[in-house]
Amino acid sequence: MTQRIQGKRESLNSYFHEKVRMCEELKFSFCELKREILIGVWSRTLCEAMMAKQHFTTDHLLHDMHSLSTLYT
């Protein structure tokens, strides 16, 4: 799981959806899923910003990541 990280030129959507599928197969809680996704994100600043925010769904998390990715990548 930890070996799957976002490639430098990989789209956020591709990485995000693949990582969500992997986490769901392992029946991770949302908190674990969020952590696993953010650990592998290319931008450390985006990771830190998203860790500090509260999210309740994967849709909400992805939306916030897209919103902030233009600022932090």
UniProtKB/TrEMBL annotation:
UniProt superkingdom: Eukaryota
Protein name: Uncharacterized protein
Species classification: Eukaryota, Metazoa, Ecdysozoa, Arthropoda, Hexapoda
